[in-house]
Structure formats: C-alpha cells, structure tokens
Design goal:
This is Metalloregulator ArsR/SmtB family transcription factor. The protein is of the alpha+beta class. It is built from 5 helices and 3 strands; from the N terminus they run ααβααββα.
C-alpha cells in the first residue's frame, strides 16, 4: 500500500458512521450485507448511508455489487490487511525492547 492510499483509507475511517459501517462489513465476512441491512443496523437514513458507503468505496476499503434493485456491500479484506501492514511495517525496528515487537495474530486471518 502506498502512502496516498493509506491516507485515503484512514480519512474514510475517520468518521463514526463510516467506521461503524466498515466494522459491520468486516463482521459479515465475504458475503457482505445489503445496504438496507446496514442502514437498519446503524439506524442511519438510506441517503446518509449511501454517502458514507460511497466514501468507503472511493477509499478502496469496500466494494459493491448490484443485485436487482438492491446493492450488496462487502469489505475488501486485502485492502484492510494492506492498511494494517502499512501501519505496522518496521514496527519497533529501532527498539531493543522485545516486548515492543508485534505479537502473533489473534484469531483467524482475513
């Protein structure tokens, strides 16, 4: 991931509604969620949610698929993992403290 991509992703996630929507999509896994389900879960009007989801798509964190008259959104796990890798690249490289090193991943990999 390049710096500009990381900035776009972090900017998109820097809003409470977008962060909540993204976390919901991560929780849903590769099947994603329909826009109406996301709106209901977050208690956000459809037009407002559409704006926020568009920002996540533009940042490359989410992809969408039209299913008839509905739209399904899903997290792009490759982008999420790329952002985490970008943020932790060379983590604690200059520190002699072994406790500083990142630990093994908890849970299953996405």
């Amino acid at each position: 991931m390049e710096t500009e991509q990381a900035i776009a992703a972090l900017t998109a996630l820097g809003h409470a509604t977008r962060l909540a929507a993204f976390r919901l999509l991560v929780e849903a896994g590769p099947d994603g969620r329909m826009a109406g389900e996301i709106a209901e879960a977050l208690a956000v009007p459809g037009a407002t949610l559409s704006f926020h989801l568009k920002e996540l798509v533009h940042a490359g964190l989410v992809e969408n698929e039209t299913r008839g008259r509905n739209v399904c959104y899903r997290a792009r796990f490759d982008a999420m993992n790329g952002l985490v890798a970008y943020l932790t690249h060379n983590c604690c490289a200059d520190s002699p403290d072994e406790a500083c090193a990142p630990g093994p991943a908890v849970g299953r990999a996405c």
